[in-house]
Design brief:
The chain has 371 residues and is α/β, with parallel strands linked by helices. The chain is built from 15 helices and twelve strands. It has a six-stranded parallel beta sheet, with helices on both faces. Strand 10, helix 11 and strand 11 form a beta-alpha-beta unit. Helix 1 packs across helix 7 and helix 8 runs parallel beside helix 9. The mean pLDDT is 97. The structure holds uridine-diphosphate-N-acetylglucosamine.
Length: 371
């Protein structure tokens, strides 16, 4: 029996790893251990509930207003000790959080091979998203196996001249996760008869101008009383301080506590429009055919822009107001972005990731690329 440790620390990694955990549990000869760094507490539980997954081990590192060096300094030695004690044969990390890079580094130091789910995404701007662009590049340098979701992400890795790449294009596991969860999740209670606009905003590089962005969103809400703006607010106190003053007074804005992923997926499915600075919601919207306005200057998910499912609004409050206002004022403009072909995956990504790990462990053959 080979022991595979699936490691993550935050909600988006957890939901995107759930389909991989399901598929690994179907692979003969593999025992799967789920390791949480505990970078997030409540939000991580929210991410896993609909999938019925609980971490087997929790390193429990989270503190309020934690810092990047503080997190790194805690996770690396704790993860290294844990992986050694577990006699792990293989470690899987996901994407671009500090937990992903820290656990990958710990495994590398312990000479345990690491696979990287959602490898190869690049914004080509080290400041946006910060520090995620660095995390994902640094992780890809030390991995045994790269599991890029798309051909474009695979080409990014190959273009960097990686030594001996082992690479399978898997499709995006968020697609699997959203299809699973949106069919089972419960929509939060909302006023009837209004179009729903889902908002999320939490990125570190957006924090300095988040209050102004919230102000722009408040103006949109005032201009569109036929819409209910639903914003499950991240638990980061800095995000809450920026967002509540502008948006709380408005009756057609619902500021909610973070939602468990089933409700979040159901909310996305019910939405006319999604406005977000997150990565997963770009893929989630494209999967459910719901247009997405991205509150960033660059995206590492360009496939959605190419098919017209996403619009990059940047972070200038006036431009952001204008773009959302125009979309909500024109059914034609909205329709042009709805139900585009999904450029991110086919719902089988988790299975390909599990088969690729089995391949690297000598338990199976290399799965075919998605693209
Ligand atoms: C982290 C990831 C980011 C990801 C995001 C998803 C890094 C560098 N950033 O950013 O890529 O998009 O998670 O949410 O890894 N908090 C709680 N309870 C929770 C979660 C967070 O109270 O369950 C609060 C804490 O005060 C914590 C703060 O949020 O200190 C910030 O959390 P942190 O993980 O440092 O950064 P995020 O902005 O959440």
């Amino acid at each position: 029996m080979k022991r595979v440790v699936v490691a993550f620390g935050t909600r988006p990694e957890a939901t995107k790893m759930a389909p991989v955990i399901f598929a690994l549990r179907q692979q003969p000869g593999i025992e799967t251990i789920v390791l949480s760094t505990g970078q997030h507490k409540q939000q991580l539980e929210d991410g896993l509930k609909i999938f019925g997954i609980k971490p087997d081990i929790d390193l429990n590192v989270m503190t309020e207003r934690q810092t990047l060096p503080g997190l790194m300094g805690k996770i690396v030695p704790l993860a290294a000790d844990t992986l050694r004690d577990l006699n792990a044969d293989y470690v899987l990390v996901h994407g671009d959080t500090l937990s992903s890079f820290a656990v990958a580094l710990a495994a590398f130091f312990e000479r345990i091979p690491v696979g990287h789910v959602e490898a190869g995404l690049r914004s080509f701007n080290m400041q946006e998203p910060f520090p995620e662009e660095a995390n994902r590049r640094l992780t890809d340098v030390i991995t045994d196996l790269d599991l890029p979701p798309t051909r474009g992400a695979a080409n990014n890795i190959l273009g960097e001249g990686k030594i001996s790449p082992n690479l399978v294009v898997t499709g995006q596991t968020e697609v699997d996760a959203v299809l699973y969860a949106s069919a089972r999740g419960e929509l939060p209670a909302l006023p009837a008869g209004k179009r729903i606009v889902t908002i999320t905003m939490h990125r570190r590089e957006n924090l300095p101008h988040m209050a102004e962005l919230a102000q722009a969103l408040a103006l949109v809400a005032v201009a569109h009383p036929d819409c209910q703006f639903v914003y499950p607010v991240h638990l980061n106190p800095a995000v809450r301080e920026a967002v509540y003053p502008a948006l709380q007074p408005l009756s057609n804005v619902s500021l909610l506590e973070p939602l468990e992923f089933g409700s979040m997926a159901a909310l996305m499915r019910a939405s006319t429009l999604i406005v977000t600075d997150s990565g997963g919601l770009q893929e989630g919207g494209a999967t459910l055919g719901v247009p997405v306005v991205v509150l960033r200057n660059v995206t590492e998910r360009p496939e959605g822009l190419a098919v017209g499912a996403l619009k990059l609004a940047g972070t200038d409050p006036e431009v952001v107001f204008q773009i959302i206002h125009e979309l909500l004022s024109s059914d034609v403009a909205l329709a042009a972005m709805q139900h585009r072909p999904n450029p991110y995956g086919d719902g089988q990504a988790g299975k390909r990731c599990a088969e690729a790990v089995a391949w690297r462990l000598g338990l199976g053959t290399r799965p075919a690329d998605w693209q």
